[in-house]
Automatic annotation (TrEMBL):
<dbReference type="InterPro" id="IPR001173">
    <property type="entry name" value="Glyco_trans_2-like"/>
</dbReference>
<dbReference type="InterPro" id="IPR029044">
    <property type="entry name" value="Nucleotide-diphossugar_trans"/>
</dbReference>
<feature type="transmembrane region" description="Helical">
    <location>
        <begin position="356"/>
        <end position="380"/>
    </location>
</feature>
<feature type="transmembrane region" description="Helical">
    <location>
        <begin position="6"/>
        <end position="25"/>
    </location>
</feature>
<feature type="transmembrane region" description="Helical">
    <location>
        <begin position="63"/>
        <end position="85"/>
    </location>
</feature>
<keyword id="KW-1133">Transmembrane helix</keyword>
<feature type="transmembrane region" description="Helical">
    <location>
        <begin position="499"/>
        <end position="518"/>
    </location>
</feature>
<feature type="domain" description="PilZ">
    <location>
        <begin position="524"/>
        <end position="621"/>
    </location>
</feature>
<protein>
    <recommendedName>
        <fullName>cellulose synthase (UDP-forming)</fullName>
        <ecNumber>2.4.1.12</ecNumber>
    </recommendedName>
</protein>
<feature type="transmembrane region" description="Helical">
    <location>
        <begin position="459"/>
        <end position="479"/>
    </location>
</feature>
<keyword id="KW-0472">Membrane</keyword>
<feature type="transmembrane region" description="Helical">
    <location>
        <begin position="386"/>
        <end position="405"/>
    </location>
</feature>
<dbReference type="Pfam" id="PF00535">
    <property type="entry name" value="Glycos_transf_2"/>
</dbReference>
<feature type="domain" description="Glycosyltransferase 2-like">
    <location>
        <begin position="107"/>
        <end position="276"/>
    </location>
</feature>
<keyword id="KW-1003">Cell membrane</keyword>
<dbReference type="InterPro" id="IPR009875">
    <property type="entry name" value="PilZ_domain"/>
</dbReference>
<keyword id="KW-0997">Cell inner membrane</keyword>
Amino acid sequence: MEYFLNYYPIAMIALIFISFFGIKISSRFKKMLIIICLITNGVYIIWRFGFTLPTASPADVTMGIILVVTELLGFLQLLVFYTLIWKERKRTPVLLGEKDHWPSVDIFIATYNEDRNVLKKSVAGCLKLDYPKELVNVYLCDDGKRKDIKKLAEKFGVHYLTRKTNEHAKAGNLNHAMSCTTGELIVTLDADMVPLPSFLKKTVGYFKEEKVAFVQTPQAFYNEDPYQYNLFSGTNIPNEQDFFMRRLQAGKDRFNAVMYVGSNTVFRRTALDEIGGFATGVITEDMATGMLLQTKYEAAFVGEVLAVGLAPETWTDLLKQRDRWCRGNIQCGKKWNPLLLKGLTPMQRILYFDGILFWFFGVFKMVYILAPLLFLLFGIHSLKTNVLEITMFWLPAFLSSYLSFKSVSDKQRSMSWSHIYDTSMAPHLAMSALSEFIFKKRFDFKVTPKGVHTDRRKFRYTTAYPCAILFALTIAALGKTLYDYLVLGTFDINITSYNLFWVLYNAIGLLLAMLVAFDRPRFRSSERFMMNKPAVFSTSQTDQEHQCELEDLSDTGARVRLPYTAEAADYYQVDNLIIDQVGKLPVQVIWTTKDGDHIEIGLRFKELDSELYVNLIGYMFTEKNAKKADREKRADTFSTVMRFLMKTEKNPEAFKRKYIREAFEGKGTLSIPGEDSLSEIAIKDISPSGCQIETNVPLEIDGNIWIAFDDQNLGQRLALVCWTKRKRKRYTAGLKFLDEQPNEQPA
């Protein structure tokens, strides 16, 4: 044993580094590194079971068994993970030719209470698909029975379906739609998903093979999820779901175990009919439906992003979504146990069981968080070892895991961010998994809100307090350890040191978990795409057209930029924006601002007819514009925390300036409605829509005040306080005028 301890870690660490750096020479070293990773982790598990189980007390024995079983399950999941990563199935694209049969397609957009503007984009995207129009029928399947959604369907010329009851939620909605339609293929889209023009063109061809029951494409998102947005890391980390939706699904495709994820999927109607339609009786019908189809047919995965939608926009909504997925997958496993389900291959059974086991990650993570805390605070041992032995066995296993994951993930995901994701959701998902698995509590299906916009930063304390409590316990554990070392002299480096390291590692995840619970304001009701393309606008004052650069664009407005000239005064009357491939869009100016030698203009679209709107969505939602950051870049914990601290504002600016503000040296007075006192102010700049003032009176944001200017031509104005800053004993405030012109203050 002593000989093994002396040479095993040195030899393994040497092989690990040789393999890792050898990847630059040959990709074969990547598989060598994976094999070493599995060997070192296997040796670690054997050591844990054979030599480290504590026996001093019942609490020690219990905690020791819980921890080692958790690690064993983690090792089994590691085996499955590298089986999927070992080799991806890269399918050759299959397209329909002129002589092929082009099947008819029914597109089901299932909706319950989603915002009309969210649905409108999805409908418009379906009408812009590159597929024979006479073969495509779009159905708005509305379980909300809303008149405005029916009018939306009529406006765009698509079908509207509803039913008397909402039995079986989304699955029942889709089954009802099947009973009302006859298309050979069925596409399911979530209400917020917008298909790109090539969606059908790049998926329907696979159905030339009679054994293919469904084709799944990745779920991708054109907005930032709460991790990206709340931590100011949208350009530094990919969406949290990307790694599964693209890499792991591609691995599952090798074993005909691609998961149906509820949207962006094309089905063969006859295959669905054979299993009785979409699975019911669980809150996640997608996983069950795909698994049941794969007992009889095959599935295909197309790794290209062909539809994009909205990720949950608040931290609370993300947790609600994952709670639903967690409970739904466990329900599926209890109703259709993949280990016993007839028709599945052994590998399909393993992969589907692993997919269900994954949703216990919250329980596993809580074990890893609590184990060192219980030792440092209460002396409960979870393993019996010393710092030398655990270093000998754990270090090669950890190092090989870290570097092999780094090599196979291609910067799409790191172990550090996996740790942050798991830690932040662990307390909530642990309760979800245990309550569903043990107590069999049934929960109604709840739609994840989409299209959220707010003007306030909110700390989601109800979701953050479990992590806050764990972080406080971490501080208490560190304090107790310091007290034991300095005062009692009972610090045992052989045991305490690795528990300290463990606690500090967990603290990083807990800190980021609390930061992500600070939801940033989302002022825009619709996400914008960066464009940087030429455009033209015209004004109501002249017939002249002005060349400009279209900087960004949404379905509600745009931002344009052009050189500042003497004609800039006319730009306040812009009434049309002309974009190639879209047409002439009626607009109104919301704000303008001068940027050096250029002027930027914020435009809002007036009511667009259906043809213009469909063209606009087709112009925005292209494969190029839909791409988001797909690699980690400057995503370490320190840089993430610094971005959060440097970019967070207590009072973010909620309003854009409508007109260019000119420097203005003037005086005046302010008064607060309902109060008699007047206070002197200095006016720093002014425009027709607002001004900036200095005063010695503290002002409340979102409060209304009256401004009286000494210049009689300016009169008195009612204004809204948008932001304030304090410097020494003086306050600077940004005001937005609420009236259209100077008037008299009411008595």
